Structure formats: structure tokens, C-alpha cells
Amino acid sequence: MSAAELAAALGASAPDRDITLYGVTLDSRSARDGDLWCALPGANAHGADFAAQAREQGAVLALTDEAGRSRCEAAGLPALVVEDPRAATATAAAIVQGRPAERLRTIGVTGTNGKTSVTTVLTRVLDQLSVPAGVIGTSGTAYRDGSGADHRIGTVRTTPEAPELHGILARMLEDDVQVASMEVSSHALVLHRADEVVFDVACFTNLSQDHLDFHGTMEAYYEAKRTLFTPEHATHGVVCVDDEWGRRLAHEASIPVMTYATLPGVEADHTARDIRAEGFGSTFAVDGPDGPRSLHAALPGRHYVANTLAAELLLAAIGLSGPETTAALGEAGTVPGRMELVTAEPIRGVVDFSHTAAALEQALITLRAVPGTRRLIAVMGAGGDRDRSKRPAMGEVAARLADVVIVTDDNPRSEDPAEIRRAVLGGMPEDTKAQVHEVDGRRAAIELAASLADVSDTILVAGKGAETGQQIGDIVHPFDDRLRLRTALSGTGTKCADDTDGER
């Protein structure tokens, strides 16, 4: 499209020469011929400082604020000047890419926990129903095109920056994808990454303490989530009312919402009851406006009942329901790194992404309830350069609910691992009945857990889920909790979860 057309759409002055735009980018290093480059103000520097690099890479126009104008023009880039370039970036990306979100069925999922599980279940069900679908989230971007071929795109953030997001949606549309499911983080909502996507249906799973290093307070965290349930971001909502935040959201949302609950005594449009363990999953009944129905969750615990019910309601909201959908839901619950069963017997090994106090509590309560469980051994820690206030709470939960707690390193990043461990240990009461160990090094911690485990014990390795690296300082070292746990238990006669004959 022409720069003049874009300038008119953004309410900016058009450049004094004809310019044709072919793409949008935020990164000066990845600019290509014909790109609009967005130079945003930052906490430590202004993006316009890199204008010369963007021009050398092929950018032909800059989108910036008044503070960035002179630096962009000095580098030879005409500038579209707007008051809020971050918000305008999303609008520009959507326009230049042809507004792909308007031509896809879109589902957005937000909440502290459950985003990845719900979007993964959705995508697997859609695959089983032969509906070309894609997912964007913590584990990256993947989609199955109209011919049945699978594609994967590496992404860094849970919700990509707006130029990347709209580019991904445009690519999905070109490849005949029909439905795109997306994790929508609170950061993305505050920083306008998800702007210009009006989801056909948005889902709220829950809210508990996390990301207070960014939001400051739980109220601000909630307000960020709430913005998804406005006409600017979604048409309809599906809201879990198991917690007070969900109940509040159900009243404050400015779009029509349908509610669901899994806790006894909580009123909702759809309520799960009679939850019963079945193998490593659960069966349950649901009471709804059209009468009772039965569902199966392929993973254990009330939170996976909630995730399965959420997925069912989201699919129904885009027109997919009936026996085939129900059957696919019962088989599509396994999510890499989310309550992933690594070994089955005689010692059960589980890897889970639980990296908040609430998620860790859910995981431990769930595993305690699995029939035949003897002791719970938890390997856990906390990430560096993230919300520090949650660390003692995670330690308290682990000491209260596990029989053995091994406090070790997560992704320490730039922080001293020993200081992080000390903060986690500081939340444990002195009279805890749990056997507590502090271990420097995640591999050594997992090996200790395996050496302490006996028949019918369950080891939970929490915090990193399906991540395949551990960040220490500026270096990401190869590390996969699932591989390490499987290897540590391999000498104990333990049967891997995907074995059929006990050999591997």
C-alpha cells in the first residue's frame, strides 16, 4: 500500500514523495526492502537511535513520535509522526497486512494459568476435526494449512509484537487456515501487541499473583486482563468464575459473556460436577442451559477439568459442537510440559510449568489425589529477573503440600541463584513436616529426587515445563526437565509413560 494511504489512516502527515510499503517491523536488524520501520520510545533508549541501521537494511519509512523525528530524517528515513507510536504500530501492521484477523475465526485466551493448555487443546481438537488451525503462544507458533502440511514459526514472546503477529495471521490466511487460537498476555494488552485483533471469542481462565514486577499491583494486573473483554478486543467472552477475579470480570465485561465453574456452590452458566479420577485423567458431568452432559479430561486435576470445559465452550462459540467434538476433546488434553507424564511406574515422574504459587498448589493437590500415590517429591525454584514477591509464597506451598522439597535453580538469568533459593526457602515455616533440601544445579536436584524416590512415589519437576534451555546469565544452556527426569529414573526400572513393553 502507499505511504499516503497509511498516513491518512493514522491521522499523520504524508511524506512528500511516493512510497510503497510491503511490510512492517519493529526491529531495525530485520527490516527489509519496502518496510515501514516503527521507532518507539523505550525505557533506556529511543528506537530512533537505530534509524541508520533500519535504512541500510531496506526500510523506506519510519513511524515514530516527535522525539524520534529528527533522528529518523537525519538517517534518510521520512517519518510518520504520531502521538502514541506503539498503539499506531498495531494499526499500521494490521492495515499493511490487509487486516487478516478479520478474515479468520479467532480465539483469545488470557489468565495467569491455563492459557497454553486451553489453546493447545483447541488446536488438537481442530486438527482431529480436520479444520486447518493455528496456535500462537508460549510454545511458539504452529499451524496446519489447508493441504494438511504442518508449519512452525519461532516466536520469543507469549504474544508477539504487533507487526510479527499480524504477519503471522496473514501467513496463516494465505495458507488457508480457518481458526487461529492465541494466548493473550497481560503485557500484550498493556503494550498494544494484540491491538487490531477483535477476537470472535475471548476466554478468562483465572488470576493469581504473577508479573507484579511489571504491573505493580494485582488491581493493575486485573485491569490489563479486563481490557480483553471490551468491544475493541472481542465480540463474546467465556469466563471462569471459580475465583473472585473471574466473578468480578463477569459483571464488569462490556461484551456478552458465558460463565463456567468447577467449584461446588459457585453459580455459573455451565458447572462441572461429579469429577472422578480415571487413569491419569478425569471424567465429569456438566450442568448447562440445555441439560446435563458428560466430558473427559485427559489430564488429572480440577484445573484440567476447567481447561477442558473452557475449550468445549470456546469451540461451541465458533460453531463447533456435537459428538465428534466431545470425543476429540477427551483425547486432546495432553500438553507438552503441562502435567506431562514422563514416567509411569513404579515411580511416577511428572513435569509441569507451574511457576506461580497458585499453579504449584494446583499441581501438588492434583498429584496427591491420583490413586496409588505414596509420597510427593517436588523439585522447584523460581525464575530470576521476575516478580520476586512470589518466591516465598512458592516455598510455603511446596513445604505445605509435598513430602520432600528440593529447592533448586529455575532460570536465574542475571540474578545470583543462591539468593533466589534463599528467598524461596524463606517462605517455608521452621516447623514444616516436609523434608527440605537445597541443591545448587537443576540437574543435581533432579538426580537427588530420583535417588530418594521409592515405589509409588511421585516426582514433580516444576517451573520450566517444555522449555529446552536454562538461562544462566546471558547464556541459554540446553536443558530439558523431561529428558533429565527420564534419564535420572532410567536405572530404577521405571516405565516411561509412552512405553508399551517397559523397554526404551
Tell me what the structure shows.
The strands form 4 sheets. The protein has an 11-stranded mixed β-sheet with strand order 8-7-6-9-5-10-11-12-13-14-15, sandwiched between helices. The termini are far apart. The longest helix is centred in the middle third of the chain and has 16 residues. With 504 residues, it is an alpha/beta fold. It is globular and about 75 Å long. A hairpin with a 2-residue loop joins strand 16 and strand 17. It has 3 domains: 94 residues, Udp-n-acetylmuramoylalanyl-d-glutamate--2,6- Diaminopimelate Ligase, Chain: A, domain 1 (3-Layer(aba) Sandwich), CATH 3.40.1390.10; 232 residues, Mur-like, catalytic domain (UDP-N-acetylmuramoyl-L-alanine:D-glutamate ligase, 3-Layer(aba) Sandwich); 157 residues, Protein-Tyrosine Phosphatase, Chain A (Alpha-Beta Complex), CATH 3.90.190.
Topology:
Elements: H1 3-10, E1 23-25, E2 35-38, H2 51-57, E3 61-64, H3 66-74, E4 79-81, H4 85-96, E5 105-110, H5 115-128, E6 133-137, E7 140-144, E8 150-153, H6 162-174, E9 179-183, H7 186-190, E10 201-204, H8 212-215, H9 218-226, E11 237-240, H10 244-252, E12 257-261, E13 270-278, E14 281-288, E15 291-297, H11 302-317, H12 323-331, E16 340-345, E17 348-352, H13 357-369, E18 376-380, H14 391-401, E19 404-407, H15 417-425, E20 435-438, H16 442-452, E21 458-462, E22 469-472, E23 475-478, H17 481-489, E24 495-496
Parallel strand pairs: 1-2, 2-3, 3-4, 5-9, 5-10, 6-9, 10-11, 11-12, 12-13, 17-21, 18-19, 18-21, 19-20
Antiparallel strand pairs: 6-7, 7-8, 13-14, 14-15, 16-17, 16-24, 22-23
Helix pairs in contact: 4-6, 5-11, 5-12, 11-12, 13-14, 14-15, 16-17
